[in-house]
Design goal:
With about 900 residues, this protein is an alpha/beta fold. Helix content is about 40%, strand content about 15%.
Length: about 900
């Protein structure tokens, strides 16, 4: 192997002389006009160098020449193509190709008797400059017409034929590879990249001669989507450097995330190729507009990554952003240098790789003496050891030490193998294995390159490249699919600072068609173990539904399922069935508790106390009347109707216990029957009595003939006829609607479902209850009317006045009952209040009747038996005359009070009738 060492920057005159030596030559030709020299230079160089000079390159002689494209220098400032040297991505990778060539040329089993040469160019990390440089590779394929060019002696010029490049290794950046691939495919030169990962390059129709030993970003994007989902994030932003790599990577990520679903992009920002001052501060400010999207998916070059981190630190947002970096970040130290605290927790991805020990041994032994073939090695030496190579007569700059040449890599400067070295070596070996297979097929038994391989057919070589399958430098398989892509194999790193003895990148998972991530090994800012959130909206609590934000499927508002609604699914609430209420967390429905009026309830104790007292009092009266049944007072009170009336009063008290008892079919039937029956019996008897008194006195005013139906038997018949109407109505009700129980869920259904209760009750609505009592009320009102009409009967003559007072009081009680009963219809205590009000009102009305009509009689019977004697009997005629006389006396007394003088009546007229009892059936 031979090499040619071309020194960088020569004086312009020297460049012109070099150009002339490499251009057409004529024997002893005299000087020509300048235009001729330019034309000859164009013929030799293909007019690809806009400065009129050949590019600086490494030329290694060989039987077969491979091209190489490496970013030896960074992009220069405006107007300058190249900037400072790139030690790792430039020199390390380029030396990896030289190392691979050395290994292949010394391998007796791979391309035996064939030496691989190379023409290696610097792309300066700029696609347009790389395109100009790459024209060197097609120079030999351009047919130049020199038929009109003659030397002074008439002979044609002697043109040195450039070497033919059969394949190209590179480039690094996707934008550069795309630009170069468009040219190489025109001349059918296969290309194998070691670092270009843009998904666009997988298009086999546009880039059919392009292959790569690294997986495309579509795999990387899929891996990054899987990582984001594994961490529970659903709202992230993307950040890309302008160019094919960044834009294609983000586009692939967004496309895969859309197809996968469940992941939303808050913002997708682009970093310009030539960012203006303050551009990165603006980017950070825009990312903070969607501050919930803490996860930042970044496809950017090293410089842009470094400046993004710097801007985040400047904005005092250390620890806020959670970066997920592509392979351009990988496990590199340079992007995070002096900004480690901002990068803490960053998850990065890198094609699965291994450090090649043989390359380390090779590279660390390189020196200025043994590596003259690398024309940029002197520049690397100065940058790596921070020294200056001097020439005689050149003064050393202040602050710079002089290079001695005795420095050694790794001993006197930090060294770490660049991550893509493995892939550079694999790319060179892939080309070598393809050439080896091609040689075996086309030149069987030949010691060197045979005629069938000279010139090399590019499309045939491409077929051999796509069919290679061998173990690469790291022991992993090297192969290509139909699009020229390598399999996707990635290591996943996280940059960790806290709780670790050795801060740096730590492998936390792998991705080979599917993700294997150790979340428990991840650490975040401040040593936090829990994965931070990067979500637009946090999960809704149980019992809350999602109300989606239009156009943003990852954003929603949480709305509580209120009232009697429960969470039917993630997005909707539904009403519980009428007999149910939601659970406490509103995720389901549960039966509504059923209640009834309990015996021990305060609402039941007062009515029961009054009822028990009433029953005891009524029983005492009945017992007293039975015992003294033949005494004048009992006989005068109308024994038959009294017993009927006392029976009704007893039933009124007893209904309290039916109203409090647990509802059932039997209880409900008795409620219907006895609720109105007790009052009906009482008021029917009282109505019969008042009607009888009224008819007697009215008849007495007209005639001495007694009215009809005033005998005890007639009174009982009339009373039972009135009672039978109530009983008949109840039995008709039984036939139409059989008694049964029901659970009323509407009565106790307040806004708070926790207070909801179902009330076990009989099938008696408020209306039916009033209808049940309405007949008794009619009897009561009628009785009151007759009592009013009988108010003129003299005091102590009969029971008319006590009955009247009884009915007046009873009316007042029931008038108070109505507003209380219906005024509590909306109360949560409705059942208790209404039941207590009804039973107390009935007990009070019964107590009024008992107290005014029978307690005085019992008092006289028990404590004043001397008054319980027979009075003399009077005929109906005498009774009628006494009643008429009493009426006239009342009228005269009234006239006297009005000032009119009347003749004074005999004092013996009225008093003689004072103790006549008109209720006595014996008169």
């Amino acid at each position: 192997m031979t090499s040619q060492y071309l020194l960088p920057p020569l004086p312009q005159q020297h460049q012109q002389r070099t150009m002339w030596r490499s251009g057409p030559r004529c024997g002893h030709a005299p000087p020509r006009p300048r235009l001729v020299w330019v034309l000859w230079a164009w013929l030799c160089s293909g007019a690809w160098a806009h400065q009129g000079t050949q590019p600086h390159s490494i030329k290694i002689e060989g039987d077969i020449t491979l091209g190489g494209l490496f970013p030896v220098h960074s992009r220069g400032p405006a107007g300058v193509p190249c900037g400072e040297i790139k030690k790792e991505k430039g020199i390390h990778r380029m030396e990896a190709m030289l190392y691979a060539l050395d290994q292949i040329n010394s391998d007796p089993d791979l391309l035996p008797n064939i030496t691989l040469g190379a023409r290696i160019l610097d792309t300066c990390s700029r696609d347009t400059y790389a395109l100009e440089q790459s024209l060197t590779f097609v120079q030999a394929l351009i047919q130049k017409d020199i038929s009109d060019v003659r030397c002074s002696n008439g002979e044609p010029p002697i043109i040195r034929k450039p070497e033919r490049v059969v394949g190209v290794i590179g480039a690094s950046a996707s934008s550069v590879s795309i630009m170069v691939a468009n040219v190489l495919r025109l001349f059918e030169i296969p290309q194998i990249s070691y670092a270009s990962t843009a998904p666009e390059l997988s298009d086999n129709n546009r880039y059919d001669f392009f292959s790569r030993v690294v997986p495309p970003d579509s795999y990387q994007a899929q891996a990054m989507v899987d990582i984001v989902k594994a961490m529970g994030w659903n709202y992230v932003s993307t950040l890309a450097s302008e160019g094919n790599y960044g834009e294609s990577g983000v586009e692939a990520f967004m496309q895969i995330s859309r197809e996968a679903g469940g992941l939303c992009i808050a913002q997708s920002l682009k970093i310009p190729r030539e960012p203006k001052p303050g551009e990165f501060d603006k980017i950070i400010k825009r990312l903070m507009e969607t501050s919930n999207a803490r996860g930042i998916i970044i496809f950017a070059n090293e410089d842009d990554i470094r400046r993004v981190l710097k801007a985040a630190k400047k904005a005092n947002l250390t620890g806020h952003f959670l970066f997920v970096g592509s392979d351009s970040w990988g496990a590199k130290i340079s992007p995070i240098l002096d900004q480690e605290d901002v990068a803490e927790g960053a998850v990065t991805i890198l094609p699965k790789r291994a450090s090649i020990e043989g390359f380390d041994q090779y590279f660390t032994t390189r020196s200025l003496e043994n590596n003259r073939r690398n024309i940029w090695f002197a520049e690397f030496w100065e940058d790596d050891f921070k020294c200056k190579l001097t020439r005689p007569g050149i003064k050393l700059e202040n602050g710079r030490k002089k290079c001695t040449g005795e420095e050694r890599i790794s001993r006197d400067s930090p060294y770490e193998q660049e991550g893509k070295v493995q892939f550079v070596i694999d790319a060179v070996y892939a080309m070598a294995h393809a050439l080896h297979s091609m040689h075996l097929d086309l030149c069987p038994g030949a010691a060197g390159v045979c005629d069938k391989m000279d010139p090399m057919e590019g499309r045939l070589l491409l077929q051999y490249i796509r069919n290679v399958n061998f173990n690469g430098s790291a022991g992993t398989g090297v192969m290509f699919n139909e699009n020229g892509d390598a399999p996707g194999r990635y290591d996943i790193f996280q940059y960790q600072l806290s709780n670790t003895t050795l801060p740096g990148y730590k492998v936390i998972g792998q991705w080979t068609n599917h993700l294997r991530l150790s979340v428990e090994e991840m650490q975040w800012s401040g040593g936090e173990q829990r994965v931070p959130d990067s979500v637009c909206s946090f999960p809704c609590q149980p019992g809350e539904r999602k109300k989606m934000v239009k156009g943003v499927p990852c954003c929603w508002h949480c709305e509580l399922c209120d009232g009697y609604q429960y969470q039917a699914d993630e997005f909707s609430c539904e009403m519980c069935p009428f007999d149910m209420r939601p659970t406490e967390n509103r995720t389901a429905c549960r039966p509504t508790p059923i209640i009834k009026l309990e015996w021990h309830s305060p609402w039941a104790m007062l009515p029961m106390f009054l009822a028990i007292l009433g029953i005891l009092a009524t029983t005492s009266v009945i017992v007293t009347f039975i015992r003294y049944n033949e005494t004048p007072i009992v006989r005068a009170s109308g024994r038959e109707l009294s017993y009927v009336l006392l029976t009704g009063i007893f039933l009124i008290y007893a209904i309290t216990f039916l109203m409090i008892a647990e509802p059932g079919a039997v209880v409900c039937a008795f409620r219907r029957l006895f609720l109105g029956l007790g009052m009906c019996i009482s008021y029917a008897a009282l109505l019969t009595k008042t009607n009888r008194i009224y008819r007697i006195f009215e008849q007495g005013k007209k005639s001495v003939t007694p009215p009809r139906f005033i005998s005890p038997t007639s009174q009982l018949v009339i009373t039972f006829i009135l009672i039978s109407i109530q009983v008949l109505g109840v039995f008709v009700w039984f036939g139409v609607v059989p008694p049964h129980t029901t659970v009323d869920y509407e009565e106790l259904r307040p806004p708070n479902p926790e207070s909801a209760r179902g009330i076990l009750k009989c099938d008696m609505s408020d209306l039916s209850l009033i209808c049940c009592l309405s007949y008794s009320i009619v009897l009561m009102v009628t009785c009151t009317v007759y009592a009013v009409k009988s108010r003129g009967v003299p005091e102590n003559f009969n029971e008319a006045k006590p009955i009247g007072f009884t009915m007046y009081t009873t009316c007042i009680v029931w008038l108070a009952f109505v507003p209380i009963f219906f005024g509590t219809a909306q109360s949560s205590e409705k059942m208790y209040i209404q039941t207590a009000t009804l039973t107390v009102s009935m007990s009070l009305s019964a107590s009024v009747s008992l107290g005014m009509l029978y307690v005085p009689k019992v008092y006289v019977i028990i404590f004043h038996p001397e008054q319980n004697v027979q009075k003399r009997k009077r005929s109906f005629k005498a009774v009628a005359q006494a009643a008429t006389m009493s009426t006239r006396l009342s009228q005269k007394s009234s006239d006297k009070q009005n000032g009119e003088a009347k003749p004074e009546e005999s004092k013996d007229s009225a008093p003689k009738m004072a103790y006549i009892n008109y209720s006595n059936p014996d008169f």
